[in-house]
Amino acid sequence: MKRNNLLLLLVLCTSFFACKKDESGSVQPVSVDLQVSMDAAIAAYSFPLSNIEIKLTNLINGQVNTAKTDATGKINFGSIVPGNYDIQASLTIPAAEYTTITGTPTTTDIVFNGLLKATVINNATKALALTIKAGRIGDWVFKQIYYAGSNTSNGATFRDCFVEIYNNSNETLYADSLYFAQVFGVNTKSSAIDFSKNYFRSNGQFDWGKSIGNNISRANEDYIYSKNIFMIPGTGKQYAVSPGTSIIIAATAINHKSPFTGLDGVAVTVKDPSLTIDLSKADFEVNLNGVLGINPLSSDIDNPAVPNMKVIAAADRDLIFQAGGRDAYAIFKTSDNVADYTKYPTPDVVTITAANDLYYRIPSKYVLDAVETQPPVSANQFPKKLESNLDASYKFVSKGQYSSQSLIRKTAKTVDGRRILKDTNNSDADFDELDKADVTKTIFK
Question: Are residues 260 and 304 in the same domain?
Fold first, then answer.
């Protein structure tokens, strides 16, 4: 591994003609200035620019440098090894201070975040600029995301995936009409992006404003796009969720530890039940049987004891999470009929035909929580799909795909026995991992 890291560093140096060496040929540290500013939407407020925490993570060797900005929002890193870096910025404004500055009452501390992903720093990099935005703090949050699946030979592969959604407020909430969506975007490795194409943004992600018919300002900043959208059914107050409790949405709500017979009549047996989980008592499941235009997988068994999610749009033959981590997830709520939202092709499409996939444009203002995942190996990572006000960073399970691991949100504090989960709109800070996904709803970090 060390040998591979050194080779990758050499490639970076050669590619950018910028790794400064001394007479002995060793790579020399460089100096870079970073200027942090507030997003235009909040720039008029007098939020402090001092003491913004900056975290530089070297994507080659994992080394982390941290520091804080001065009163002008500026900081100098005077001895940085050339390479590829994720640069994160975070500022927490106490609730009382935020209320005083903005006039908007809040009882929750507000966190501003920003990220420059996979940024090259070398002796040609003199200055960088980073904008931070205030993320939305929602009552509903993802508590656990099990996307990695279990062993393909001895486990349940992708069949046993689920999300756990938590009531992070101090009052009873109703899950009725809560939407769950997978956010679509470029899944090509950042190093393979052809920036000569005009439908990519500077970060390598799609410029949805270039999609046919999507003639709207801030098409990227104010919207997410999806073709996998599911809604919890209900009459409005049918599915009550108490403060500090959660619900589980399963891809397939069966006991994945036990043998089952698929829709094709073929028996399926899991060789090592310890690798997977029992989802037969999930609160909701996604079942695509009977959905027009969908030929569901034989493993998409319907559990009559578990309510089915309403299918708004489905791009796959089941609810399938990208086991390698190339995904982003959102929960949102709106009184709109989401099925009536306009759909658009990806911006690389020149002429729309019946063969083109179309994606719903969803206003970000309705998003209550969003989490982005990435592959654990930096060289395999791709441009971020989510804006920093939804998720300033990303998270992954360290053992990667089919490892049985899940992401679990950290606890911020406990009030009168109720756990308040950490919600800074920065997945890297908010989540930890479980070595094995857990459906008991009792596990916290």
Answer: yes
Q: What is the pLDDT of residues 95-132, one digit of tens each?
A: 888 888 887 777 778 888 898 988 889 888 888 999 99
- Residue 116: phi and psi, rounded to 5, are -110, 110
Assess contact for 89 and 53: CB atoms under 8 A: yes
Q: Is 269 exposed, middle or buried (0-12, 13-18, 19+ CB in 10 A)?
A: exposed
> pLDDT (tens digit, 9 = 90+) per residue, 157-182?
999 999 999 999 989 999 999 999 99
> Is the domain of 39 the same as that of 161?
no
Q: What is the pTM of this model?
A: 0.83
How far is Cα 29 from Cα 22, in angstroms, rounded to an integer? Answer: 10
Tokens (6 digits) for 432: 């930890």
Residue 55 structural domain: 2-134
Q: The tokens of 402 are what? A: 């089919």
Closest CA to 391 of 166, 137, 38, 163: 137
Instruction: Please name the residues in contact with 385: beta carbons below 8 A apart, sequence gap of 6 or more.
Output: 183, 184, 185, 186, 205, 224, 328, 372
Strand order in the sheet with 343-344: 223-226, 359-363, 343-344
- Does residue 42 sit in the same domain as residue 142? no
